[in-house]
Structure prediction request, 300 residues.
Amino acid sequence: MRNRSHRSRAVLAVAAAALLGVAGCDATGGNSPAPQGTTAKVRPSPKPTPTWDRSPKSVAAVGDSITRGFDACTVLSDCPEASWATGSDTKVNSLAVRLLGTAGAAERSWNYAVTGARMADLPGQMARAAAEKPELVAVMAGANDACRSSVSAMTSVAEFQADFEDALGTLRDTLPKTQVYVSSVPDLKRLWSEGRSNPLGKQVWKLGICPSMLGDADSLDAAATLRRDTVQDRVEAYNKVLEEVCAKDKYCRFDGGAVFDYRFGTDQLSHWDWFHPSKTGQAWLAETAYRMVTAKKPVA
Prediction:
């Protein structure tokens, strides 16, 4: 009887130890708190690698007459030195100068914009810009797609999107990590409302500047109003395309509509055509672009 009792106590002891062992695993695992006196080691989550360099070392620009500084210095002429993107004029203090300094901008910035260009021309410009291997490409295009001889001649939204996607794809074929800053298309209807107060400006507009918006500038009848509203709607649709396409590329920043929303006045317009930016207007564009490029986070 004594030996049987001894064996029974031994079996019970082993079973108890096993039960405590299982309970011990549950106590330190799952969602249960760790026993007092112990410290759980938690590895910190890795910080995400930043994808946007706020100090690019070279800049290329593509786009239309605004980026060429058209009518900013002399009548009916390009003035690239006054360009918001790459110009050297101290009154403008271009994006390139702000980022690279005067000497750096002279050596490491390139302007491939062309007066009169539309979005369909951007892939070719982007290919030329990509050959320079810039760390940042500044884009402003779309005004000429809306500024046509008539409303029916405007670039369709679908074509505009396809051309912009083609331009970005052209860049990405050779430079997958080059950053892109995209300006919104300016508010063309505000150009009409501000410039129409000047008799000289209206005479210049008759030479063929943006007829879809600026033609018959004094007319306020239903047809003229509908025409201008249709152009404005198209510009807003273009800007939505720029925002949405850019959002799909982690190295692309859209200006959040800053250029479109800018409440400029006649001081910001060239007094030769009351359409293109003056040097004051170019300076504002440069300041805005610099603020967007150097921001810690893109504009929501």
Q: What stands out?
A: The first strand starts at residue 59 and ends at 63. The radius of gyration is 31 Å.
